[in-house]
Design goal:
161 residues; 4-stranded mixed beta sheet; binds FE2/S2 (inorganic) cluster; alpha+beta; elongated; 6 helices
């Protein structure tokens, strides 16, 4: 699992600058959170009291919104978001094995990010290309008909291919 990244002074300054654009604008919480996530890559928990103060809210209200919406992350995400399909077609064509192999290659479990922040591993319901099952999506690219060799090739262990 990725070590908790400490927020940098520069990140906090960037966050404070974004907050200043939304001062006392409670309605602006969601766009503000999106903006912070876009600039910093995630919403550092240390920023929550700053956000609350800036908008005139309680920290618990800000935390509640972050927890409610699945698109907000409070831990750093990897540069590459790897999603293994867990839909039925992928499952029956070996998706479970593909997930196991990806976990082994990356050395992380589902929902985790590699310590070097290169990969975050997630699973996803059917992505709509069942004919190519089992599928993996990396960022916006879909890789179909996955097998152990393709997994090894995708994640760098070329000597095993
Ligand atoms: S079940 Fe995986 S793409 Fe449909």
């Amino acid at each position: 699992m990725a070590e908790a990244k400490r927020i940098t002074k520069a990140d906090l300054e960037r966050i404070d600058s974004i907050i200043s654009d939304y001062r006392e604008q409670r309605w602006g919480l969601i766009p503000l959170l999106h903006e912070i996530q876009e600039v910093v890559g995630y919403i550092p928990p240390e920023a929550i009291p700053h956000i609350a103060r800036g908008l005139g809210l309680f920290s618990s209200q800000v935390q509640g919104v972050i927890s409610f919406y699945t698109q907000f992350y409070t831990t750093p995400r990897g540069k590459n978001i790897v999603r293994v399909c867990r839909g039925t077609a992928c499952h029956v064509r070996g998706g479970k094995t593909i997930l196991k192999l990806v976990k082994r290659e990356l050395g992380i479990e589902e929902g985790e990010t590699t310590p070097d922040l290169t990969h975050t591993l997630e699973t996803v319901a059917c992505i709509g290309v069942c004919a190519l099952a089992p599928n993996i999506v990396i960022n916006k690219d879909t890789f179909g008909q996955m097998n152990p060799k393709k997994v090894a090739r995708l994640f760098g262990k070329k000597d095993e291919v």
